[in-house]
Each structure stands twice: as C-alpha cells, then as structure tokens.
Amino acid sequence: MKRPDSSDHLQVGPSAIHGSGLFAAEPLTEGVLIGTYDGPAVDEDGMHVLWVEEEPDHWVGYDGRNCLRYMNHSATPNAEMDGRECYALRDIDSGEEITIDYGWDDEA
Question: Where is the SET domain (predicted)?
Fold first, then answer.
C-alpha cells in the first residue's frame, strides 16, 4: 500500500534524540511511503539539507520545507530514504519517532 504524500499521518514534537523529531500519528506498515522530502535545491549544506545523488557523482541538496525535515539520525533507523522519498523499514507504532541513518560513520 502506498500512502499519498500527506502529513496527516505525521506529527512533529519534542525528541529524546535531538530537538524536535518526526513522529507517526498512526501506525505505519513496513514498506509504506511515509512522504517526500520537499524543498528547494541548494548548493550549500545547512541544518535541514538532504543530499541526494541524482546522477553518479552528482549530488543535489534540498533544503527541507515540510515536516520530513525533522527526521533525526539513528544507527538503527525505522525508515530510509530512496532519493527524496522516505519509506518505513519496518512497522512503526503510533507515537514512535521516525528516524533515518544520515550516513555518518559512527566509529569515526
């Protein structure tokens, strides 16, 4: 089941990880489209910039303007990005924070 790109099933609130976080407002099933990261393309990094490899060795930054900008990092995420689209890696409970792996080397 694919979900329309709507924030009705998402909410932003205080995060135990960092600042504000993105939370499921209802249960989300594994594989469901959580949403699409929306914002203008930019050349410089910033707090809510998502970098996407759109062609081999060509990265584009998107300065988040919708609620997906509040996803925090986790080494054991429950969601993942495929380009600018975010999908649930597993079932996510209502009230659970939605996290992705920012791609950091946690050992460095």
Answer: 8-103
CATH numbers and ranges of domains, the chain = 10-100 (2.170.270.10)
- Determine the Cα–Cα distance for residues 72 and 101; give it in Å rounded to an integer: 8
Q: Are 23 and 95 in contact (CB under 8 A)?
A: yes
Taking 60 as the threshold, does the pLDDT of residue 107 lie above it? no
Q: Are the C-beta atoms of 1 and 32 separated by less than 8 Å?
A: yes
CB atoms closer than 10 angstroms to residue 74: 15
- The model's pTM is 0.86
90 phi/psi in degrees, rounded to 5: -155, 175
CB 61 within 8 A of CB 44: yes
